[in-house]
Specification:
Layout (H helix, E strand, L loop, with lengths): L2 H6 L27 H9 L13 H14 L3 E5 L2 H10 L7 E5 L4 H10 L6 E5 L4 H7 L4 E7 L11 H10 L3 E5 L4 H4 L9 E5 L13 E5 L1 H16 L4 H12 L1 H21 L3 E5 L9 H7 L6 E6 L4 H10 L4 E2 L9 E4 L18 E5 L5 H12 L4
Parallel strand pairs: 2-3, 2-4, 4-5, 5-6, 10-11
Antiparallel strand pairs: 1-7, 6-7, 8-9, 9-12, 11-12
The chain binds pyridoxal-5'-phosphate.
Length: 387
């Protein structure tokens, strides 16, 4: 399906709402019925029509159709946050006594689920270095039901060979789920590579303006149906109509934003790589990246998120660098219009800071929609304080 068609037309039905170009925000909790038989049908199959907005809602339907098509998936569900999508996708595919294999250091709230919530149900998780396909095979047990991937990872950008992992899982009847937030389906299509459930946070590039949270779970009709009937309705954390409308709005400009951000990042990366205070960068589409070949093979692009390694022995230098940035802001998240920085050392007790450990000197950078020269000048002046 044509990308422009998906973003501008698919799922929209303008003749039914006054020929308005922008879709209406159907801000309603419930829907009216004239016939008892129709109501009975809706009770039996809540996915078959509008009954109550915890299930289906017309504004959300437009978004669902677009996001499923973007992922090349049969169907999708949109959640109130990426974390909710992760929770539901995992929860729907494990039961007491099962075993999960996950990449090491997945997104915080996926890891928290594996470490804190699933053990309460007797479900165990093995973390592996997902770079090698042998590690997936070796970690698999008789009771393994789920493989959890995140490619690239959002701190060190480690990749998995998605096709190879999916193919092995299929042979063993193991469900595969991936966090595809970094690439978005514009730059990586996991479903086409054999993954069962493709998750992305919509808070980042889909929303794109740092003003809305959302999460997406794409998969087969059967799998999505199962999650709708159970986790979606039961958790009650589906996206709200107004937030869905903001995401439809974000989607209109997604390709243009990713394109601009990619080009800006390319310029900034060139500057960073030449800078004497930068020991290295971690960016999947940079030639220095250890998995560069795999990245080129399975990703169409990489946008604004990367990690720089500051050349210093002192935590204080990293602190000063971050606090000297005038335009690039210090905040969590990414994918919006604004450039951001977040130092790894903010999560490490100061006394534990070890300059020999490269990771302690990581600063994760996100480059947004600003002019590249504006960002480079800001980085240049802030790096000048690094000793
Ligand atoms: C932000 C993020 C999430 C979670 O999304 P929320 O919308 O914040 O709940 C999941 N995975 C990755 C890689 C993220 O960066």
């Amino acid at each position: 399906m044509d990308l422009s068609y998906i973003l501008n037309e698919l799922g929209e039905d303008r003749e039914h709402y006054f020929n308005a170009v922008a879709p209406p925000i159907v801000q309603t909790s419930n829907f009216v019925f004239k016939r008892v038989d129709d109501l009975a049908k809706a009770f039996q199959d809540e996915m078959g029509g509008y009954l109550y907005s915890r299930g289906l809602n017309p504004t959300v339907e437009i978004l669902r159709k677009k996001l499923a098509a973007l992922d090349g998936a049969e169907d999708c569900l949109v959640w109130n946050s990426g974390a909710a999508a992760i929770f539901a996708g995992i929860f729907a595919n494990v039961k007491s006594g099962d075993h999960v294999v996950s990449v090491k250091s997945p997104y915080t709230w996926a890891q928290r689920m594996f470490d804190v919530i699933l053990p309460r149900f007797g479900i165990t998780t093995t973390y592996i270095d997902g770079k090698k396909i042998e590690n997936w095979e070796e970690a698999t047990q008789n009771n393994t039901t789920l493989f959890y991937l995140e490619s690239p990872n959002s701190w060190d950008f480690a990749l998995q060979d998605i096709k190879a992992v999916a193919a092995f899982a299929k042979k063993r009847n193991i469900i595969t789920m991936i966090d595809n937030s970094y690439c978005t389906p514009l730059y990586q299509k996991p479903i086409e590579m054999g993954i069962d459930l493709s998750m992305q946070t919509a808070t980042k590039y889909i929303g794109g303006h740092s003003d809305v949270l959302g999460g997406v779970l794409c998969g087969s009709k059967i799998m999505i149906r199962k999650i709708f009937d159970s986790e979606y309705l039961n958790i009650g954390s589906g996206v709200q109509p107004f937030n869905a409308w903001l995401m439809i709005r974000g989607l209109r400009t997604l390709p243009a934003r990713l394109d601009r951000i990619s080009r800006t990042t390319g310029e900034v990366v060139k500057f960073l790589k030449r800078h004497p205070k930068i020991e290295g960068i971690l960016f999947p589409l940079d030639e220095s990246f250890p998995q560069y070949e795999l990245a080129k093979r399975q990703m169409k692009g990489a946008c604004g998120l990367l990690t720089i390694i500051i050349k210093t022995r002192k935590r204080d230098s990293i602190v000063k660098f971050c606090e000297s940035l005038k335009h690039i802001m210090m905040a969590v998240s990414w994918g919006g219009h604004e450039s951001l920085a977040i130092p790894k050392c903010s999560g490490i007790p100061p006394n534990d800071f070890d300059p020999e450990n490269k990771e302690h000197r990581y600063v994760r950078m996100y480059f947004g929609m600003e002019d590249p020269l504006y960002l480079i000048a800001d980085l240049d002046q802030a790096l000048s304080v690094v000793a």
